[in-house]
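Key result, reporting period 2: structure in, sequence out.
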């Protein structure tokens, strides 16, 4: 090929500049690799080309893309046929560097190899090339092989071009020194772009792994709520996609890009990360009297003390009657009857407190009064001193109206969302993830402003945060792994969620899509127990508009 004219050099520089811009903006690695090879072919008028990537163990070169215009060959890449070419080892059986294959030679020595005619060079083993030519009736002549290295000099691939072509005669010709310099420049830029993508991908993977590490810590603290951190993001994305596909109504404008989905998914995974600071005995509190252990056992001991004291008192009275040598049969029968009544009263009180301690039902005013009455009973402690049967802390916990948490413990639990917000807002989020703190930190807010921690109203919240609020509630309602309750059926859960839509707790428009698009059913079939999946009569679901 004759020397390049200034206009041809300018054209090549323009192509190189265009590729440089694409290398900076294109984040689709397979497409980027293919464009690198096609640009290299175009710049040098090459008839064919192959791009190799290093294997994970760095011991061989793997065919990534192979193109040939004359043979109309397209293997690998974005839409090509499956690559059926064997890998090229970088070391031989003895562990020495493989210098027989030209691609391996270029890779091992970090040098470009420009061969004018492969059939006249005896340095390399071109048996594979000759077999290829014979099989496809092709004539390989010139070959340009350029290694690609990252900023640390580590091999990431090899770019190989076949048969430079004279643009006027269309005949194969050698690759010029100018061709080589252009391809070396292109390979260097491509290596930098690929390395940057790999580093970004590694950093993202590291960050996601750290996120999962936090959730592992939460799971280890509370195995009963471990699935919550896994299921909420799944349900969040199901509902978000349903809203994205909605083309009518108040939410018809809502749409998501892939970046938006990644951002929302990340928020879902991190929505309860603040629980890592919540004390285990609060998170795991399965009964009203539980702290490090369930204090109902202490009450059982006190009840036994009361029963024994009652029995001892009666026995002493009987002994006094026998010693008085009076006709005591009637009195003894009366004492025995009183004892049995007292023991029955004690057992009834114990059974009452045991049931109340579970916290599965809402506590009535009558039950609260009975707790107060039992608290006033007296028992003798280890020193023989009379003490109230229940201390103030036990009365407070047994008087919890719903669930097992008292006011202080509820505040501790609720504080996890404030901790979540503090943790997430402390991170230097990149632009495409900057809304993660708002989405994750808003799932306990309410439409009417009565939520926490910031008391936001519906118009102050993003659609994503309101979606997450519904996902968080529905998952909690249906979960079967909580120590203090059973998982509710679909009908029960939708009725509760529907009432929340009517009373200003959750977004009624999102709830309508949740039901209309049967998001609840898709989630149930994937994550809920079959016994919970009943036939829902949507006409009876409060807040649902057909």
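The corresponding designed sequence is given below.
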């Amino acid at each position: 090929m004759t020397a390049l004219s200034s206009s041809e050099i300018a054209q090549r520089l323009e192509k190189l500049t265009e590729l440089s811009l694409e290398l900076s903006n294109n984040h689709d690695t397979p497409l980027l690799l293919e464009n690198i090879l096609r640009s290299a072919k175009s710049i040098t008028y090459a008839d064919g080309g192959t791009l190799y990537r290093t294997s994970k163990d760095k011991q061989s070169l793997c065919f990534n893309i192979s193109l040939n215009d004359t043979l109309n060959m397209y293997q690998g890449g974005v839409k090509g046929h499956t690559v059926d070419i064997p890998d090229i080892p970088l070391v031989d059986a003895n562990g020495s560097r493989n210098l027989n294959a030209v691609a391996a030679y270029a890779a091992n020595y970090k040098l470009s190899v420009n061969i004018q005619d492969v059939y006249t060079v005896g340095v390399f083993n071109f048996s594979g090339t000759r077999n290829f030519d014979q099989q496809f009736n092709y004539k390989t002549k010139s070959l340009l092989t350029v290694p690609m290295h990252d900023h640390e000099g580590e091999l990431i691939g090899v770019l190989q071009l076949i048969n430079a072509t004279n643009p006027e005669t269309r005949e194969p010709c050698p690759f010029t020194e100018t061709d080589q310099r252009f391809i070396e420049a292109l390979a260097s830029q491509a290596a930098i772009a690929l390395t940057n993508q790999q580093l970004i991908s590694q950093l993202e993977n590291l960050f996601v792994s750290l996120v999962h590490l936090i959730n592992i810590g939460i799971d280890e603290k509370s195995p009963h709520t471990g699935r919550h951190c896994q299921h909420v993001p799944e349900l969040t994305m199901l509902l978000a996609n349903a809203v994205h596909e909605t083309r009518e109504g108040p939410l018809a404008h809502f749409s998501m890009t892939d970046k938006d989905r990644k951002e929302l998914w990340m928020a879902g995974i991190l929505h309860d990360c603040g629980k890592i600071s919540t004390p285990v005995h609060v998170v795991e509190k399965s009964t009203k009297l539980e702290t490090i252990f369930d204090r109902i056992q202490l009450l059982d001991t006190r009840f036994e003390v009361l029963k024994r004291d009652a029995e001892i008192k009666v026995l002493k009275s009987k002994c006094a009657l026998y010693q008085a040598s009076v006709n005591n049969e009637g009195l003894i029968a009366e004492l025995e009857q009183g004892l049995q009544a007292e023991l029955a009263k004690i057992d009834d009180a114990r059974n009452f407190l045991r049931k109340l301690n579970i916290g599965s039902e809402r506590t009535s005013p009558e039950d609260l009064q009975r707790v107060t009455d039992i608290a006033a009973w007296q028992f003798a402690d280890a020193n023989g001193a009379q003490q109230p049967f229940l201390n103030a802390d036990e009365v407070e916990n047994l008087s919890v109206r719903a669930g097992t948490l008292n006011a202080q413990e509820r505040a501790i639990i609720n504080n996890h969302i404030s901790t979540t917000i503090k943790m997430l807002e402390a991170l230097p989020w990149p632009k495409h993830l900057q809304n993660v703190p708002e989405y994750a930190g808003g799932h306990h807010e309410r439409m009417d402003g009565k939520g926490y921690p910031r008391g936001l109203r519906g118009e102050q919240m993003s659609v994503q945060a309101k979606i997450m609020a519904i996902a968080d509630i529905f998952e909690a309602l249906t979960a079967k792994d909580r120590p203090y309750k059973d998982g509710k059926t679909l009908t029960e859960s939708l009725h509760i969620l529907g009432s929340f839509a009517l009373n200003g707790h959750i977004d009624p428009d999102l709830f309508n899509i949740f039901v209309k698009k049967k998001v609840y059913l898709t989630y149930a079939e994937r994550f809920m127990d079959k016994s919970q999946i009943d036939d829902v009569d949507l006409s009876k679901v409060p807040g649902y508009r057909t």
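The first strand starts at residue 46 and ends at 54. The mean pLDDT is 87. This case is discussed further under Risks and Mitigation.
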